[in-house]
Q: What sequence folds into this?
């Protein structure tokens, strides 16, 4: 069995960014394992009506693959999926991309210094393993009494059933997060009526943007310099948003006032406005962008139930308030299993699984490498998400770190990188100190950035993208244990053989 240098799990933004970074570094001995039948990650899976990105499209793209042809400021989901397909083609992955090939398990073989990966087909061994599985992949289904008794179509927004006709139907939506804010205005146009169960209102700011004229797209295509400048401007605007999201008093007050003005401009009924007004700090939960949600909720097409759905009996839905509603279709826009990554049970390092190592919340060094898991890299995992700028930028910074770390690996006689537990603990403390006074921990809300098991901020990076870049570029290899003497004859000497 031939040993591959690097196995990447996942063919979304992070996986494709990693593959591209490796190839540009002259590392072609790689495979990308994708459990689905297509690339695209979350943009392949989420096809609900109205799905789009809330980061400007020219920034929500890979730096090696700028795209002048986005049709809108905030690209529709299908367009982003098509972009990722095009990236995979341009990267020339060929048979290195293995679709319909899940990682069913991965175990570190210390004697041979390889990861042994079970895909259900032929065994695979890799000197290094990169988990680019995404953090928003497994839908979260809340525990609601009698949910299984619902008589009509029932599905999660991330598993949209396009065979279900919404016309003339009473549709209930559970949740008011990012997906629901995009989805509800579309449902209001199609369904007979929409009932929206809101556990917690969100801070919503104007979206703006719109269609990009063809002439502008052609100009950007003809002028790569202009496209690069636009991307730089959008990046700077994103970095500036960090202040309002992270608790800077003046910036937060300004942003909060803008959000309240947006709400007051679009919702005239005082009682409805009150129900839609958050009682927690701006930035505590993900700040949403929409110009269509408030008008939809204020219309006769939507009924807002300002409490959670607590019970289902046939077609009858009961809210925490005691109100009861009838529905023909039930949509769960209830988010994802984000703090407990679904792949963690499948990966076993020196002594235990990632799930066991992360039993009190995800930890790492550099948001990318984990003590006890040699030659393993995690993209979009612990403390690598953002609330203010494009997460694609973070994945690219991580991919660049991986390339540098692999060069360090190849300089070692044992060809193995083991994170020092002290380095991981220090980085975890560094994150905790940076996050301690932010709205994510002190703002009076529950959010998906914080792990309930420990109360630690485990999803978000509590800083700017520039700070993350400087943190990773500033590493010198001291995060890893000294090299150990290799087992004679167990490790090939050629880095790509």
A:
């Amino acid at each position: 069995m031939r040993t591959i240098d690097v196995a990447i799990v996942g063919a979304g933004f992070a996986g494709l960014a990693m593959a591209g970074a490796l190839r540009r570094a002259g590392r072609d001995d790689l495979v990308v394992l994708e459990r689905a039948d297509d690339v695209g990650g979350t943009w392949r899976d989420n096809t609900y009506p109205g799905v789009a990105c809330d980061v400007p499209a020219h920034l929500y793209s890979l730096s090696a693959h700028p795209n002048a042809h986005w049709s809108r400021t905030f690209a529709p989901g299908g367009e982003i999926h098509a972009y990722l397909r095009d990236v995979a083609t341009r990267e020339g992955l060929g048979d290195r991309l293995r679709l319909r090939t899940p990682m069913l398990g991965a175990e570190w073989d210390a004697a041979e210094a390889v990861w042994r990966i079970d895909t259900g087909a032929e065994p695979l061994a890799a000197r290094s393993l990169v988990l680019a599985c995404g953090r928003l992949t497994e839908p979260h289904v809340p525990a609601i009494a009698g949910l299984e008794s619902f008589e009509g179509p029932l599905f999660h927004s991330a598993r949209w059933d396009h065979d279900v006709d919404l016309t003339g139907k009473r549709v209930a939506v559970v949740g008011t997060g990012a997906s629901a804010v995009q989805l509800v205005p579309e449902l209001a146009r199609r369904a007979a009526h929409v009932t929206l169960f809101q556990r917690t209102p969100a801070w919503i700011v104007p979206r703006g943007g719109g269609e990009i004229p063809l002439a502008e797209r052609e100009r950007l295509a003809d002028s790569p310099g202009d496209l690069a400048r636009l991307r730089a401007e959008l990046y700077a605007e994103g970095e500036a948003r960090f202040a309002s999201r992270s608790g800077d008093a003046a910036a937060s007050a300004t942003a909060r006032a803008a959000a309240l003005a947006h709400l007051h401009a679009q919702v005239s009924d005082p009682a409805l406005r009150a129900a839609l007004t958050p009682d927690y700090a701006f930035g505590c939960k993900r700040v949403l962008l929409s110009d269509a949600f408030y008008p939809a909720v204020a219309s006769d097409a939507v009924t807002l139930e300002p409490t959670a759905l607590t019970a289902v009996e046939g077609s009858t839905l009961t809210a925490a308030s005691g109100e009861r509603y009838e529905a023909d279709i039930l949509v769960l826009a209830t988010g994802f299993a984000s703090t407990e990554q679904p792949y963690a049970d499948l990966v076993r390092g020196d002594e235990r699984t990632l799930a066991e190592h992360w039993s009190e919340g995800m930890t790492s060094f550099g948001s990318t490498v984990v003590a006890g898991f040699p030659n393993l890299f995690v993209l979009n995992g612990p403390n690598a998400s953002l609330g203010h700028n494009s997460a694609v930028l973070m994945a690219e910074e991580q991919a660049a770190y991986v390339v540098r770390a692999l060069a360090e690996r190849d300089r070692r006689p044992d060809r193995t990188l083991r994170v020092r537990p002290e380095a991981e603990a220090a980085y975890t403390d560094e994150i905790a100190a940076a996050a301690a006074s932010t709205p994510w921990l002190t703002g009076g809300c529950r959010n998906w950035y914080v792990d309930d098991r420990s109360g630690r901020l485990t999803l978000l990076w509590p800083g700017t993208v520039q700070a993350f870049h400087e943190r990773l570029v500033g590493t010198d290899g001291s995060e890893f244990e000294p090299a150990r003497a290799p087992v004679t004859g167990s490790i090939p000497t050629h880095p790509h053989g």
About this structure: Residues 488-497 have pLDDT under 50 and may be disordered.
